Amino acid sequence: MKNLSIRNVPDDLYRAITSERARRGLSLNQTVIDLLRQRLGVGTSRSNGLGRLADRWDEDQFHEFEDATAAFEGVDDELWR
User: Do 32 and 24 meet the contact criterion of CB atoms below 8 Å apart?
Assistant: First the structure.
């Protein structure tokens, strides 16, 4: 394992990191390592979090959605006159 020293950390960044440390209940060192891993996608999968929010659809749900939104594919001639 390597050691890393970071100098001249801006006050606002330091406050954000220490706030995150308190929220997570971890050491400052572990919090910084976790944040770096997440941001760089090292040792964890990178995700924007939308998959967790959107969940997964089964085949029936997909077809139901397709049927419900099919009207959006058409062009309303009245709007283009």
Answer: no
